[in-house]
Design brief:
Layout (H helix, E strand, L loop, with lengths): L10 E5 L22 E6 L2 E6 L4 E7 L17 H17 L11 E2 L3 H4 L4
Parallel strand pairs: 4-5
Antiparallel strand pairs: 1-2, 2-3, 3-4
Amino acid sequence: TDPDTEWDRPLLMESTRYNFGEYTNVGCGEAENGLPWWVSLRTGNYKYIRWLVPGEIEEMYDLENDPEELENLALKSEHHPLLAKFRQGTIDELRRTDAGMVDNLPPVLLLTEQQLLGGV
């Protein structure tokens, strides 16, 4: 394998704490030490995080311009088309890797920053 070859897939990471294999097929598990399960997709400058908790908001960051992940672009409506691509890309990668949880992912809550802060 040539180490200089361009990587052709996004980076998929997940945390299911101490659960593996078929035990993760449920799509969301009990939070341990206050930390719920999550799945993350990184491609290009962007990182997407989906907490595997029903009704939780998603996160998306531009790591080149916001390396400390302080501005959640998922809350900004102008980024919702890109957010939708990352959401689907995450599902696609979970399917490609035969992750049993893919058909049991909890629903996400799509909010804007204004709604999150109590506005209309």
